[in-house]
Amino acid sequence: MATEFSIGDDQGWTINFNYEAWAKEKVFHVGDKLVFKYTAGRHNVFKVNGTAFTNCTIPPANEAITTGNDVITLSTLGRKWYICGVNDHCANYGQKLVITVLEESASPAPAPSNPTTPAPNSAHGISGSRYQLLMAAMVALAFLAV
């Protein structure tokens, strides 16, 4: 199922925002949508290549997306680069975004035809038991401390 990402969340597409940190914890897939929200006329969006991104090279003005509510559907895999081409917003104020687009997210895989159930004494089962025992002990200690 496709996800819609509002770039910069509540801040939107603006200057002096860390888009690298914003994108770091997100996973983008083919079919997802990027929504760039800003006041029209104050910013714009250019899709650029890696070199133009690094150098903040602004493409021709007719390539800009300028509505203030720009929706870009991610249609291919790989790195994608976006910059603001207004004044020096990219170069001096960090208004640029780079993401990596992965394959379209799929529904959960069907169960294998010959499922194997781990033995109760498998490493996974033991570590799970130890974790539960540790958590129970911590809860008991918390009650004793009160």
From TrEMBL:
Entries under InterPro entries matching the protein: Cupredoxin, Phytocyanin-like, Phytocyanin_dom
Protein origin, superkingdom: Eukaryota
Pfam families: Cu_bind_like
Phytocyanin domain span: 3-103
Name of the molecule in the record: Phytocyanin domain-containing protein
Source species: Vitis vinifera (Grape)
